[in-house]
Amino acid sequence: MNVYPLLIEVLQVLILLSAAPAFVGWVRVLKCWSQGRSSAGVFQPYRDLAKLFSKDVVLAENASWIFRFTPYLVFGAAVLAGGIIPILSTDLPLAATADVIVLVALFAIARFFTALAGMDIGTAFGGMGSSREMTIASLAEPAMLMAIFTMSLASRSTSLSQMAQAVLSGQPVLRPSIAFALLAFVLIALAETGRIPVDNPATHLELTMIHEAMILEYSGRHLALIEWASMMKLFLFAALGIAAFAPWGISTTDAFLPVLAAFIFMTLKLGVAGVVLVLIETGLAKMRLFRLTEFLGSAFLLATLGMLSYFILE
Amino acid sequence: MMLTPIETASACVLGLLLIVVLAGILHRKQRLLLPVCFSLASAASLLTVVAGGLAVANGLTEQVVMLIGLPDLPFHLRLDPLSGFFLTVIGLLAFFVSIYSIGYVKGFLGRRSVTSLVIFYCLFLAGMFMVVLSDDALIFLISWEVMAAASYFLVVFEDEQVENRRAAFLYMVVAHVGAIAILLSFGVLAGLATGFGSFSGYTFDAMRSAHFPVEWATAAFLLSFFGFAAKAGVVPLHVWLPEAHPVAPSNISALMSGVMLKTAIYGIIRITFDLIRVFPWWWGAIVLIFGLVSAVMGVLYALMQHDLKRLLAYHSVENIGIILIGIGLAMIFTSFKLPLLAALALTAGIYHTLNHAMFKGLLFMGAGAVLHATHERNMEEMGGLIHLMPWTAVLFLIGCISISALPPFNGFVSEWLTFQAFLLSPSLPSPLLKLLIPMGAALLALTGALAAACFVKAFGVTFLGHWRGHHASRVVETGWMMRLGMIMAALTCLLLGVFPTLVIGWMDAVPEQLIGSGLGATAGTFGWMWLTPVAYERASYSGPIVFFGILSVVVAAYLLLHVRPGAIHRAPIWDCGFQKINQRMQYNATSFSMPIRRIFGFLFSVREQVRLSPQTPHRAFPRRIHYYLRVRDRFWGWLYRPVIEASFWVSRKVGRLQQGRIQAYLIYSFVTIIVLLVFLG
Amino acid sequence: MNLSVAANINSFLAALVLLTAFGMLVQRRMYGLIHLFAWQGLFLSVSTAIVGFVAGKHHLYISSLLTLSLKVVLLPYILHVLIHRLRIQKEVETVVNVPLTMLIGIGLVIFSYHLTAPVRELSTLVTRSTLAVALATVMIGLLMMITRRHAVTQIIGFLAMENGLFFAATSATYGMPLVVELGVALDILIAAFIFGIFFFHIHTTFDSLDVEKMARLKESD
């Protein structure tokens, strides 16, 4: 049996674990630059995580096992997703474990438990966060599925590796459907990863926070795991977008040189993804909760237009 | 002596009828009656599972003509893969629920006699088994009525409460309107099968071999779809469901929601795929549209509920919708001669049938356990039960995850298969359908996500946080019998989710029988670990890897972080330095669903009022706030109130005939006889 | 530039026209609306030029230029000035809520695809597939006029409808004769001026450009 694919699999997970904080750090640095502040450097998230891991855990008196189990589950789902999304190579032994729909569902189970953990302590904030998070998720889901539908039309597959290979081996054509799906995907990714204009990861103001409200009671290693997992989630959504829409550079074999090239391409593309994210985040303001129906409605509209233009125009 | 599957199944039905007799004999010894009868019922159910399972696994079709029946109209029974599959579904849940009932029904002992409960329970089971076994219209309708009547008496079991009697009455009315439609539909089919001159068309065999003109077939289909939709609780015929299911004893709710609704699904599949066989695509579109509407409306109504069992009942509407989506797609694909895709969609539909039976049964059993312990159905009065009822909490949580379609549990697999069927719709030749069907996929995604939101609410409000009730009641964990029933259902949920390939391989005989094509060859190409419904390039899923992958990362992370013994300190909740947090400050069921209520509010009739107490000095400093919220089903006003008013109007008009004088009545009879003689003579 | 590449670009432009139509349908801000309208004109004009190139019909270049000057420069400018002069509130009020409008719009696209299916079967032109988009643009323009209250947005809806018609002419028959097109362009221009005058009148009479207020013109009953 060939061990190389397995090795790449392990390598991918390691890259995910180690590079996700750097990616978040890069986004923060860019944001500081764009707002004229001095930054704490790309490596600040590592220091944050190290600090949190070394601290003791303080649990609320009535926290149940769900509260303690959730960080591990959220972390586990993110790591598993890292083994499935083709970051370096499309030739992954685990790639067939899950197609895009299963990947979305993996994030959904992490969200389900986070929302439960938010309600576990019985504070008003936790419940508020859970309620809002689940509302936003349920509005984002139809748009996400429609985007997946549109992407699967061209590649005739919902498996990410197959999608990437279809783009890599096909002729470069200007496809309106893919362009629409990409736009929709960006909007959904903003909602799913809790970025501006849907949620603000930097705020702890009670009226605006959503994800932070759910995890407000966490501390120590639990908080570290959750933070790490949410960094990985951002990284994974960037990787997901890259694999589906711009897989150029991702290796289709498991030879050493293409994988090395894929690593370099990945770094470059993630750098660009960070710039795009910061441009969006600086350009937009956080939306009111009930304006989000329009935001996610637009995502749905774009994805649907993609589907329609595939049938009408292509 | 070896019994063939159909003999085993019939023996089980007979056994259930014997238990009815036994219950009558043991009436005076209630403490003995309960365990004996329910364990016998569970044994009978387990045997039917074996019989049904074997019939499906071997793709057997057996027929029996019974000696009893009306003169010249003997009863026919038949066990083919389709009925075997439904027999398995019903038997499996009946097995779990019967064990659960041994513990649950004990709660009624000393308060009331449970003999009638046991009798009707067994009749109910027997009726359901007979519905799927019957092979002619006559015995089908008789079993259908036995099932309906028995479940009516079960709903009305606690008959001292007005609401129970009202709910049961509503249930009876809708069930009978549906039954009339089914009767008419069979009448049309039987008449066309052999002509109206003879009676032999009442067997399903005669219908199978007949060719129906499309307009009559359509009439029969529409009538039967109406009838079965009324039983299944398809929107807009769903109103009886959230009334009847909550008031029945919880073991009965589990059976009604879990499997009784499935007999209607069975009926739809039997009539369309087996009896009529050739149909235009728009029948499928009708089923698909009703399925989508039921799915979305069901889950939205569920989100508005704060009664735990009512919430679950509305979720049955949703899940019936999801099943119908699969069946509708299968019908569309069949009529366009795409057998592989039709097999995929049908497999998705019936897989969800099996899954829904398991997790909904589990959830109703869990709700029953909560009700048993707290004597409370209103979630707004619960909270924090995870500390008092740890077993029930875990098992209920498994049900929640399964129904929310989250991997690696079973609900996800069938929804994923339905999505795959949707994603293959571009191979349809009709351009309009190509554009419209993806919208259905989006609605299904919306349904799934809303269901997750709803079960975060249901579990979070019931089991997490603090107890919200006014006086903390003495809540204790349920007994072992109830736990055992739930544990088995929960394990089934997990197994059905982790090993879908094996299950699909087993149930492959059903699409083979109905469509002539199965998934068995493609779904399991890469062994039991990988599920590749159509082709591995198209989509794949591995339940075992998702389950064990997450599990191993969780365990590894846990162990790594516990190398260094880090202390866990317990501390009071951080209250931001304000006054102490109390249980009234928690989010409750109403506040949790507020954003969704506002976004989708136009679909309900919502009345919301905030009233300040009169002695408030200023709006900004209210002493007391009264909040009033009423969410109602719009269909009640749109559809049912006009019908009710019309029927009252008609009855008032007809009531004028009542004179109270015997001569007048004699005149009516006389005139009737004269008229009949004139027309028939 | 070969034929398939041109058709590809043309399809993409059609998609963009559709996108701007939807953008106008959901845009709340008045200036944003005008900008979207200008963009739509631009896409239209480029698309016309490409069709002219592919089909070898040189009068299409002229109508492309006409579109560019009229719909991308002149009309947006006039509307801009109008809004500025009349100090119209910038927020556009809608009658129906935005997500629902979007869904209706999607339904209209599907409907027009269904309607144009027979034409698509018969036609042999490179541009035949964009006919559905053109028809959808017309319908969305009308939908916009129905769902908005503000007189200015209604005009933009009207102009968007005209864009759709123009696009339909280009894609179905490679454009109308030049004379007709010049006439239509002139009509549009005149219509814009008349609208401008009407706006002033409505504004002075009702102190608002909310067309709902016109219900007051009805005899009281």
- Helical segment count of chain B: 26
Portion in strands of chain B:
5-15%
Considering DSSP H and I runs of 4 or more, what fraction of the residues of chain B is helical? 55-70%
Number of domains of chain B: 3
The shape of chain B, in one word, is: globular
The tally of beta strands of chain B, per DSSP, is 5
**Counting H and I runs of at least 4 residues, what is the number of helices of chain A?**
11
H/E element sequence of chain A: HHEHHHHHHHHH
Multimeric organization: heterotrimer
- Class inferred from helices and paired strands of chain A: mainly alpha
Largest interface: A-B, 81 and 86 residues
Question: Can you walk me through this structure?
Answer:
The complex is a heterotrimer of chains A (314), B (681) and C (221). With 314 residues, chain A is mainly α. Chain A is built from eleven helices and one strand, in the order H-H-E-H-H-H-H-H-H-H-H-H. Chain A is 71% helix and 1% strand. In chain B, a hairpin with a 2-residue loop joins strand 1 and strand 2. In chain B, helix 3 packs antiparallel against helix 10, helix 6 runs antiparallel to helix 8 and helix 6 crosses helix 9. Chain C is an all-alpha fold and 221 residues long. Chains in contact: A-B, A-C, B-C. Chains A and B meet through strand 1, helix 3, helix 4, helix 5 and helix 9 of A and helix 15, helix 16, helix 17, helix 22 and strand 3 of B.
Short description:
Chain B has 681 residues and is mainly alpha-helical. Chain B has helices at 5-25, 30-58, 81-104, 115-133, 137-155, 162-194, 204-208, 214-232, 240-247, 250-276, 281-303, 308-335, 339-374, 385-388, 390-403, 410-423, 431-463, 480-498, 500-506, 509-514, 520-523, 543-561, 589-592, 594-599, 634-655, 662-680; strands at residues 62-70, 73-79, 568-571, 605-612, 625-632.
